[in-house]
Amino acid sequence: MQEVNPKETTRAYAFDMWMNAPMPMVVTLFRTLDVTRLRKISRRRGLKFNMLMCWCIGRAAVQIKEFYMLPVGDRLISYDSIAVNTIVADSTGEVRSCDVPYSPNLTEFNAAYLSLTQCVAASGMNHDIVDSMVIGSSALARYEIDGAVGMYSGIFNNPFLIWGRYRKKWFKTFLKVSFQFHHTQMDGAHAAHFLDLLQREIDSVSS
Q: In this structure, are residues 65 and 79 in contact, taking their beta carbons and an 8 Å threshold?
């Protein structure tokens, strides 16, 4: 990771517009995903559905260059790698944060996901990766929600996805996802393209 001159990037205008605004524009898009394939693969191969979602998020994100830059404080930071965050319940029932490094290899990503989440659950300590651009996620799998909108804190600018319980309709399974991002990092078109890619990656996971 390294600091970059915003004027030498494609985010120059957005940086000037939003970084010093009293309330920078934080945008949330909503999308209903067809996760029928992920659910089938999860059951057939004994893989966690949430892990598969996180892996597909990483697969989609690495195809968009804007995901490799993030506003941090008053700087724009460029990263060489991406990680996906997931929320873990520890032994006391408290929630902890776990960053999982993205790997294009599903077996490697699954191994890292299982190892790190189990470690966080047992220790009650967060696992943070500071040298990767981290995409946040929160799976409220017990609850049916239509979406979620976060509040700008001025500290945590990372893109973030939230979803609840998937819903079955006929022979299909659907999942409503909320995707929040900082306008300095990307525009709405980038975010919408990411969600298109996410659906494409879900559809292309090998069984």
A: no
Residue 133 has pLDDT above 60, yes or no: yes
Q: DSSP secondary structure string, 53-90?
A: HHHHHHHHHTT-GGGGEEEETTEEEE-S-EEEEEEEE-
Orientation of helix 49-61 relative to helix 188-204, angle to 10°? 130
- Say if residues 55 and 61 touch (Cβ distance below 8 Å): no
pLDDT for the residue 10: 73
CB neighbour list of residue 39: distance below 8 Å, 6 or more residues apart: 49, 166, 173
Contacts of 113 (CB under 8 A, 6+ apart): 48, 51, 54, 55, 86, 100
DSSP 3-state of 128:
coil
The model's pTM: 0.89
Report the chain's mean pLDDT, rounded to a whole number: 90
Spatial contact of 147 and 127, defined as CB atoms under 8 Å apart: no
Burial of 170 (0-12, 13-18, 19+ CB in 10 A): exposed
Q: Other CB atoms closer than 10 Å to residue 107's CB: what's the count?
A: 8
Beta carbons of 206 and 183 less than 8 angstroms apart: no
